[in-house]
Amino acid sequence: MRILFSSLLTLTTLVASFATESAIVPDVSPTEAYPGGKASVSFKPFASFMLPAANLPDDEKPAFYAGKALGHQPWVKAPTITTARDGLGPVYNARTCLACHVNGGRGVMPETGEQNLVSAFLRLSIPGKDKISGVVPEPTYGDQLQSQSVALFHQLRHMKMKKNDYEAAPEGYAYVDWVSKTFTYPDQSSVELRSPSVRVENLGYGELHPKTMMSLRNAPPLHGMGLLELIPQQDIDAGADPMDKNGDGISGRVNRVWNVETGAAEPGRFGLKANRATIKIITASAFQGDIGITNPLFPDQPCSANQTTCQNTRDGNDLPEDVELPEELLEMVTHFMLNIGVPKRREPNDPDVINGRAAFYETGCAQCHTPSFTTGYSPELPHLSKQTIWPYSDLLLHDMGPDLADHRPDYEATGTEWRTPPLWGVGLSGAVNGGSNLLHDGRARSVEEAILWHGGEAATTKERFIHLPKSERESLIKFVESL
Ligand code: HEC
Ligand code: HEC
């Protein structure tokens, strides 16, 4: 009886909220077909997240392509004759940016626990807080497990060469074993879901600290970063409701992170936990942490004080800058990152898509996946300024419940919070590089699986989705895939 009563109650609440929310399905705007405003690009005949914004001025194209080349060509071990591209490692995760952000898209997760983890990595830390790095790094391994190194025995590991003590060992090899479960809808149709179980082998520097927290993160796609950077902070703040004053069960918080350029704590909006303030900073930190390339913002090699062989390995620093990537080249890659175009919508007027659009608003997806913003003005990026854009993200942190939790705080973000990812282009993920690995750890193989993992603040929305008739669920997914 009690069960019946409570489910009746849920049903009435659902119906009531449906009634109020159906009023908020906005009319279709003609601008929706161009999610990146005038910077939107056509994805025919090639699907790629590396095309320049459609309105990038001609005189900036050489810089864009130079930045793309720097993000694409592999870095090599120092010393070499090509001083401009040496300095890889000593420990690193990949040799290029685009090895992980394949074709500018998201990373491709290994299918089985035998394959190496390539485009995703593990962030590490121990309990505690640090104003500058946001976390207390694992004392020996630092805040990221670098699974590669320039050591010959590692490069030739298929020849079963032995580890030695004069070359820096990789920090450890990471693998993901997928654990499957079946989700059954109230209408009895079912979907297989998988979640990762992480395994670290061949630790190069002894045991991890017993309190180590690990966060598996897959590389997100790179298009539209300049437009996201130009969203005025006050417009992002306007969506935040940390105390849930409006009582809709959805809070939304701004992360506060260290800006190495200004030397102050500032709102974060990039990275999966909104753990970086600007594209230049996340680019520079990726050079250091992911490839082992030092630069003016992050001038130290990715070796901790306890990794002496790593520290003593020859670097690729060139004078006068005394870093591996001088400011000028960092600016070029940043320029490339800021100016990648956003795909135009595919078939936005298909009746099924229009139907799914209404369901998207009615179920509450738009409460976090904020459809639209207008970018502010930047003298450096006039072509990306004052554009009406449709990223479908509030760029805020949300508690997504225990199933998605990594239990590893990052600055102000808790172990259950993640930044709402933009949904523009999500339907092209597979076409861009075969990697339809959605969510922070790439566990979801489709939009449907991604929705079914939503919990926490998104639990009510997910319930509404689950209770939609199958055909309406399919329309909603079709809408998301058309973004
Ligand atoms: C080993 C794989 C790997 C490599 C190499 C790599 N990245 Fe990433 N990238 C990631 C992951 C994983 C994240 C998410 C990080 C996080 O949230 O902590 C990320 C995040 C980003 C973001 C933020 C996107 C967003 O939506 O906020 C940008 C921009 C970026 N990377 C640029 C670069 C650039 C530029 C390079 C080369 C200098 C690079 N990455 C190299 C894996 C990689
Ligand atoms: C409470 C806020 C919230 C609501 C409501 C919400 N989402 Fe999300 N969504 C998120 C967050 C945060 C993530 C990232 C979670 C992660 O990576 O673990 C996410 C991830 C996703 C992804 C994966 C995107 C990617 O790039 O990996 C899709 C697709 C998605 N949501 C669609 C939807 C749809 C459709 C709805 C409505 C049925 C919805 N979301 C409702 C916050 C929300």
Tell me about this structure.
Strands 1-3 form a two-stranded antiparallel sheet. Strand 7 and strand 8 (264-268) form a beta hairpin. The chain contains 13 helices and 12 strands. By secondary structure, it is of the alpha+beta class. One heme C (HEC) is lined by residues 250, 363-365, 367-369, 398, 400, 404, 418, 420-421, 423, 426, 438-440, 447, 450-451, 454, 457-458, 461, 465, 480.
Question: What features would you highlight for this structure?
Answer:
two-stranded antiparallel sheet, 483 residues, alpha+beta, binds heme C, 13 helices, 12 strands
**Low-confidence regions:** 1-22
Number of helices: 13
Lateral strand order in the biggest sheet: 1-3
Bound molecules: heme C
Give the biggest beta sheet: 2 strands, antiparallel
Helical content class: 25-40%
Strand content: 5-15%
Strand and helix order: HHEEEHEEEHHEEHHHHEEEEHHHH
Kindly state the number of beta strands: 12
- Summed over residues and divided by their number, the pLDDT gives a mean of 92
Rg result: 23 Å
| First-to-last CA distance | 44 Å
Query: Which structural class matches the secondary elements?
Result: alpha+beta
The total domain count is: 1
Shape: globular
